[in-house]
Amino acid sequence: MSTRSGKVATEVQDALIERAQRVLEADDRIIACWLEGSFARGNADAWSDVDIHIVVADDDAASFLAERKEVVERIAPVLVLDDAPLPWGAHLVLATLKGPARLDLYVERESRLNDALRFETPRVLFDRKGIADRVRLTGEIEPLVRKRLTDLMRTFFFGTMWPARLLGRREWGTLFTNAGTVIFQFMVPTMLIQDSPEHFYRPHFHNERYLSEPRRVTVNNLVAEVARSFIQIDKGDPTVAPIVAVYERLLETLWTEFRAACEKYGVVYMEAAELETRGYLHRELGMFADE
Predict the structure, then answer these.
(1) Model confidence pLDDT, tens digit, residues 27-37
(2) Can you tell me the distance from the alpha carbon of 212 to that of 196, in angstroms, rounded to the nearest whole number?
(3) What is the pTM of this model?
(4) Partners of 284 in the β-ladder
(5) What is the Rg, in whole angstroms, of the alpha carbon atoms belonging to the chain?
(6) What is the mean pLDDT of the chain?
(7) What is the C-alpha to C-alpha distance for residues 218 and 31, in angstroms, rounded to an integer?
(8) SS (H, E, C) 3-41
(9) Of the CATH numbers 3.40.50.150, 3.30.460.10, 3.30.70.270, 3.40.640.10, which one belongs to the domain with range 3-134?
């Protein structure tokens, strides 16, 4: 793949940003427009989404959203489009465009501008009323991190029967996928919470690159161990003992990370849930036999 200045080139996204700026600036309903994400930080690559935020007056929000597909089509032909309301009153339009390129267009109401969680300085494309000066970065991140950590633990311990259930039913593909979920949905975010809390909110299949190099080595080694343990999955009869062993290592590593993160942020660790899980998996699968 071609490179520019030692980085993977982003010509497709750069062209998309230029077209988007022209189209959006021509729409009088749009008061201001800026980039967030990797194109604002300056570390985008050829696989990065383009995150564009626009501000519209509250009275114009309904008309703009009614025409959102037509607006995006003026930027580039739409292959797939979806959207969703966001908690702070904004509306996210997700589009895969011809190129291909991914555009996430955040439509923000002027009156709710400061209700969003923002961790990065935006890169302003145009601003008719000095709106960008009102875009406020989130000040206190620790309460958000504590909530995220609590949610991670609660979700994980809710599903602690999964390994025994899936192995007992010989659902090998789902069991293999679950092992990856343990790593990337729970372990990696908990590592980031400790080392780089500003990245705690990222989607769990896009956050590995924010880990430190030692953390990445740990994660990649675990992934390799999981792959080796399922060596006979194509025959429908992998050996159970290596799978049980790698799950035990996964869980011990995850619980160690949970404990360390809880200690760092003053969150109560779910000790009773871990003890119950250990006992259950010991009875069902023979895990933690030395305890």
Answers:
(1) 999 999 999 98
(2) 9
(3) 0.81
(4) none
(5) 23
(6) 91
(7) 46
(8) EECCEECCHHHHHHHHHHHHHHHCCCCEEEEEEECHHHH
(9) 3.30.460.10
